[in-house]
Amino acid sequence: xxxxxxxxxxxxxxxxxxxxxxxxxxxxxxxxxxxxxxxxxxxxxxxxxxxxxxxxxxxxxxxxxxxxxxxxxxxxxxxxxxxxxxxxxxxxxxxxxxxxxxxxxxxxxxxxxxxxxxxxxxxxxxxxxxxxxxxxxxxxxxxxxxxxxxxxxxxxxxxxxxxxxxxxxxxxxxxxxxxxxxxxxxxxxxxxxxxxxxxxxxxxxxxxxxxxxxxxxxxxxxxxxxxxxxxxxxxxxxxxxxxxxxxxxxxxxxxxxxxxxxxxxxxxxxxxxxxxxxxxxxxxxxxxxxxxxxxxxxxxxxxxxxxxxxxxxxxxxxxxxxxxxxxxxxxxxxxxxxxxxxxxxxxxxxxxxxxxxxxxxxxxxxxxxxxxxxxxxxxxxxxxxxxxxxxxxxxxxxxxxxxxxxxxxxxxxxxxxxxx
Length: 420
Description:
By secondary structure, the protein is of the alpha+beta class. The termini are far apart. It has 13 helices and 15 strands. The chain has helices at about 5-10, 30-35, 55-60, 110-135, 150-155, 170-175, 180-190, 240-265, 285-290, 295, 305-320, 370-405, 415-420, and strands at about 15-20, 25-30, 70-80, 85-95, 100-110, 135-140, 145-150, 200-205, 215-225, 230-240, 270-275, 280, 325-335, 340-350, 360-365. The strands form three sheets. Strands 2-1-5-4-3 form a five-stranded antiparallel β-sheet. It is elongated, with a radius of gyration of 48 Å.
């Protein structure tokens, strides 16, 4: 049977393929191989040393270890026609026929692979620098062995001395807060059991000297599975978030203090959105106006404002919402649920967001109705007393004038002395 069809197919295969005879000469090649080494003409007849970094065909054959008849060469440099180099991986096969020891090579150009690996290596170095700069510890946990491999930064976060052999699993478990240990281990468990691909936990970790509880944040993900789909390893990161947690706790405390002061204040308090809608109102204002919270917040604010106060209130509100002013205070009238009027000193302040944009309005309403009623009563009382005091004095002055007019009459010596 003729080998012509086989050789024809060989030459048209798109993967570079070369055969080498016992003398080390290239006996067959295809277009892909010729192009790989930069030859427009065929490579047939050239010696293998012209295109590969080997001194002889014997050196090439030394990659095969009997009784094997083939070998995978992971990296060998090829030589191009122009004198350049091309990195290659080679699957080498040998056999013996009447012509002696023969070799066939299937070649793969590794230029792009190596470029990608180099880029990946650079990226990994950068990532490692960034991870260390961010003080993020990395660990890989193998659940079947209950064993963990940890990074140097993980050891630093655990305050473990470099080079000192320690059971990291035992050390970690002994220092996680007892109330948090379940939470910390649960994040790993759900990934190991395949319930979740990723999990996060926060827990307290005791410092090495036992003086301080620090907050740690951990992100875990299952990365390796066996043929049955069982997770065989999970990778995770650990970082110290004590500062952030401290701020969260302080903020939570501040919010609770504000909520308590807002809700329990004997003075009316309201939070309005920039759009004028109610966001929050306290019990004191509801009681003062005679509405429940649901009734009050379902009504537009101008429906409880006295008609003579609406214009001024709308004007000031527009200035606040636009950010033109930050606060104002004025006496204003409101209409209670029963239709009576309530006078109040109203102070409104603008609250801005983190970017400095108007966010909401904080309004304080102090009921002045009773104060104004007492003030009016006091005015009436003073006016009445003044009138009563002025009336007897007028009578006395009139009598004195009459007596003075009668001075020429026969008055007693005592009266005359009084008039003198």
